[in-house]
């Protein structure tokens, strides 16, 4: 049976520090090392972005999670739901959780089909706990088989009302990284990644913009 760190060790390969670096270099911003791949340039778009989902953030308690931690980020969101339910007896729609995902968290938002088509498991150092090899399926959809990972999967959290987004700027950066690995043009890979996001995932124009808009709607902020 997988223990707390056992599941994580099985899911995430060794060398957590470089799991998103790939061929990208990091640079210093203030006191924090920031990956160049995490800072994609905004790409103007002629498409119309539907922001109406923000109107659903009407709960008494609401929080936007700035997601980067593949190791235990979804556990934190699960704990947030559990605490509100157990202590305050509140569930969705009285509580609203928004999970904001950019480049680091992309593997959470990818369907099994994308894992099978592209080397997501290899590039992000995500291993399948059942095989110990780079994942060919999204191991974050259903969570783990032992506490605290039971129920800490994307599907379970969506069923509790959690909203997941994918940053469009970051998706272009992810597409470029994968395209470089598979020797395909970024626009082609981008189109397939965009079409292959998990059901219910909302594509947003810019992660940083939506963090602010959620806070404008009264959401507390937590980086995980």
Explain this structure to me?
The chain has 224 residues and is α/β, with parallel strands linked by helices. It has a single domain, classed as 3-Layer(aba) Sandwich (Hypothetical Protein Ychn, Chain: A). The protein has nine helices and seven strands. The chain has helices at residues 4-11, 73-88, 106-109, 112-117, 120-123, 154-159, 168-182, 186-195, 207-216; strands at 26-29, 32-35, 61-67, 95-101, 163-167, 202-204, 220-223. The chain has a five-stranded parallel sheet, with helices on both faces. Helix 7 (168-182) packs across helix 8 (186-195). The model is unreliable at 1-10 and 13-37 (pLDDT under 50).
How would you summarize this macromolecular structure in one to three sentences?
With 224 residues, the protein is of the alpha/beta class.
List low-confidence stretches.
Answer: 1-10, 13-37
Numbering strands along the chain, what is their spatial order in the largest sheet?
A: 6-5-4-3-7
The total count of helices amounts to: 9
Please identify the top-level CATH class. Answer: Alpha Beta
Secondary-structure arrangement, i.e. CATH architecture: 3-Layer(aba) Sandwich
Topology, number of strands: 7
Biggest sheet architecture: 5 strands, parallel
Number of domains as seen in the coordinates: 1
Amount of helix: 25-40%
Q: What series of H and E elements makes up the topology?
A: HEEEHEHHHHEHHEHE
Strand content: 15-25%
Q: CATH homologous superfamily name?
A: DsrEFH-like
**What would the CATH topology be?**
Hypothetical Protein Ychn, Chain: A
N/C terminus separation: 26 Å
What structural category arises from helix and sheet content?
Answer: alpha/beta
* Mean pLDDT over the full residue set: 86
Radius of gyration: 17 Å
Work out the oligomeric state of the chains in this entry.
single chain
């Amino acid at each position: 049976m997988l223990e707390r760190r056992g599941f994580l060790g099985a899911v995430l390969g060794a060398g957590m520090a470089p799991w998103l670096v790939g061929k990208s270099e990091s640079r210093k911003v203030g006191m924090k090392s920031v990956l160049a791949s995490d800072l994609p340039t905004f790409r103007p778009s002629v498409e119309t972005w539907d922001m109406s989902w923000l109107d659903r953030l009407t709960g008494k308690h609401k929080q936007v999670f700035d997601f980067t931690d593949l190791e235990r980020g979804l556990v934190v969101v699960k704990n947030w739901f559990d605490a509100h339910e157990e202590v305050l007896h509140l569930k969705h729609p009285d509580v609203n959780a928004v999970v904001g995902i950019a480049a680091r968290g992309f593997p959470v938002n990818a369907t099994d089909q994308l894992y099978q088509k592209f080397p997501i498991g290899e590039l992000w150092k995500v291993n399948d706990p059942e095989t110990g090899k780079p994942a060919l399926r999204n191991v974050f959809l259903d969570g783990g088989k032992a506490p605290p990972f039971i129920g800490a999967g994307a599907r379970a959290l969506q069923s509790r009302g959690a909203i997941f987004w994918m940053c469009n700027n970051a998706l272009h950066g992810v597409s470029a990284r994968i395209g470089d690995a598979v020797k395909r043009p970024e626009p082609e890979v981008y189109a397939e990644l965009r079409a292959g996001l998990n059901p219910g995932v909302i594509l947003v124009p810019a992660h940083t913009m939506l963090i602010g808009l959620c806070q404008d709607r009264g959401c507390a902020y937590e980086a995980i």
